[in-house]
Amino acid sequence: MLQVITKSFSELTTNELYAILQLRSEVFVVEQDCVYQDVDGKDQKALHVIGVKNNKIIAYTRIFKPGDYFTKASIGRVVVAKKEREFGYGHVIIKHSIKAIKKYFNETSIKISAQTYLKKFYESHGFLKIGEEYLEDGIPHIGMLKNQ
Q: What percent of the residues of the chain are helix, what percent strand, and what percent coil, each to the nearest 5?
């Protein structure tokens, strides 16, 4: 069972922040073999949606109010630990992230920059492709938008 909590940057404990950065690095830098600046100065503006299983952070997103990342509310750094992906926690964390944007920002229009191979995953949550594919940190991405 995945417990999901939402915290501001200042509410994160040192251990939580460390675990989040470790998970993001494990997947985005090591697993995807992508050298990029993960610690980008935006975490302080974000709300952090954290998935915990057996007292360990295994899923995560960060959400932004309109204007803090894109002109619309947004979800980013969507990640699930590799050994936990078979359980559908990606769907759980995205659903919680969408609800958190509504709860904390009173927004229903959400823009994301999605890795292209995850297009169907995001479409299953109501996102639609906008624009053309582009490279972000050497990985194919597409813009996607959810209006509801």
A: 35, 35, 30
